[in-house]
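Example record

The entry below shows one chain as it appears in the dataset: sequence first, then structure tokens.
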Amino acid sequence: MDRETRLAWLVDHYQRPRHKGALADADARVPGGNPGCGDIITLYVKDGTVSWEGTGCTLSQASASILAERVNREHTSFEDILAITPETWMDLLGREFADARPQCALLALGTLKAAVKTVEMNRTLKAAGHTDEQIKELRRETEGHWALRSSLSDLPSNRVRNAG
């Protein structure tokens, strides 16, 4: 696809997003964000169907729309979703756009992978005998842990230490 066609494709997905909106009773609802750009998305997964909600730059929102469209159209398995590499996704979106804003280009992919892992973990916990309520409580506890860890990793001293 040439540059002009790819740009038109991205803008079309931004202006007329596909599969946008919450899924009722989703198996997973996972938020993601890019504080540097102000992008915010939430990915929903239910029975292999993906939808999303969000606001942000053209690239992040178009990427979410394209990802949801492809996964839903191709009935992509969880295994195949987890196998999508950042490089492959950035190539699909167009390196001339994605390389300038990789965090924006990859936000939806990373968030979808987190949603898939959430669904897989919930299935494992159910198979081990946990109830839905117990799983929700475990999720609440771990969300607090990850929020604290994320806040600590944003401290300047940790950014330098984690850079290498």
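Notes for this example: Residues 157-164 have pLDDT under 50 and may be disordered. The radius of gyration is 17 Å.
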